[in-house]
Amino acid sequence: MSSITGVSVGDSNLPHPSDGPEKSSGASTGTRGDRVFGGLAMSAGLLVVVLVTLVAVFLLVQAVPAISKDKANFLTSRVWESNNLRFGILQLLWTTVTSSLVALTLAVPFAIGIALFLTHYAPPWFARIGAALIDLLAAVPSVVYGLWGAYIVAPKFVPVQNVLQSVLGWIPLFSGVPSVTGGSTILMVGVVLAIMILPIITALSREVFAQTPLQHKEGALALGATRWEMIRTAVLPFGRPGVISASMLGLGRALGETVAVLLILTALPGTTKWTFSLFNGGSTFASQIASDAPNDQNDANSMGALIAAGLVLFVLTFVVNAIARVIIERRKEFSE
After folding, report:
1. Cβ atoms of 41 and 33 closer than 8 Å
2. Among 272, 312, 269, 320, which residue's Cα sits nearest to residue 289?
3. What's the pTM?
4. DSSP letters for 302-318
5. CB count in 10 Å sphere of residue 325
6. Cα 183 versus chain centre, distance
7. Looking at the predicted structure, is the pLDDT value of residue 152 above 50?
8. Among 59, 165, 229, 298, which residue's CB has the most CB atoms within a 10 Å radius?
């Protein structure tokens, strides 16, 4: 039976970790099975490092010659004419980052709310069904999301965009773009991407919240906290690093999404006037590569330009994950 501190009578009879593994259980660190498993685990870890390094080297070797021949500024130009060796990443970078951030902003609050509901409010039978349904969203192919977003949701999303333009149009992010009609905008892509990354963030957050130590929760309740106060003071601080990790995984998925963005977002000619509006069209790194690759695969220079765009996406994803690791390390002490 558990006490208020979470330590049961049976727990007091368990051996202390400092006593070492029990010989009768075979939990030794020098057996052949341990050595084999350790070797396999190390090999798997090294394989990941080798694969990432090889991908980075391939992108660098293929992209550098094309960038050296670029007739436009690679970092500040919005023109994308890879067949003429005039290409820049500014528009691609803006569209990729803004659509992904919109998706993350919409998905994280819903994911945290769903995860808390399933772990602390819903009855067990409903929590199991809800978790299964959320997980099923991750199994839907991205092309289905793209078609659904382009032909079903986008036309119905136009009135919402019109309201946002009329109310918040004085903010550059919500100003109208006359050349882009319908709902095929960056904001619409962000909404669809939010639905796509919702299962990832929800599933990981749910698992982290469920692992909150029982003594933390019982301690808060014993001090007179309500259920919400217990969640706010015990569950959320414990799960914060996990939620951040889950959010970064979702952001990585949004940054690299291809088919859905290609189907929904309105492509823009290179001469289009620059705007910060979320109601603009454009292309992300992934969608630009997907749309141009079939035509440029026989031209080494054009493919080099596309690979250069892929290199930037690779670096962007790497930086996002590195920032996530730094944030998690700084907040790790709050969960211990």
Report:
1. no
2. 312
3. 0.82
4. HHHHHHHHHHHHHHHHH
5. 13
6. 23
7. yes
8. 59
The DSSP code sequence of 191-215 is HHHHHHHHHHHHHHHHHHHHTS-HH
Neighbours of 165 (CB within 10 A): 16
Contact 189, 99 (CB under 8 A): yes
81 three-class SS: strand
Q: How many CA atoms lie within 13 A of 142 on its CB side?
A: 17
The backbone torsions φ and ψ at residue 109, rounded to the nearest 5 degrees and listed phi first, read: -60, -40
- Measured in whole angstroms, the distance separating CA 85 from the mean position of its chain's CA atoms is 32
Of residues 260, 250, 259, the one with CA closest to residue 199: 250
Residue 306, pLDDT above cutoff 50: yes
**Which of 77, 81, 97 has its CA nearest to residue 89?**
77
Spatial neighbors of 100 by CB under 8 A, at least 6 apart, are 190, 193, 251, 254, 255
- Reduce the DSSP state of residue 103 to 3 states and report it: helix
On whether the CB atoms of residues 116 and 210 are closer than 8 A, the answer is no
If we measure between CA atoms, which residue out of 287, 304, 265 comes closest to residue 87?
Answer: 304
* Contact between 293 and 229 (Cβ < 8 Å): no
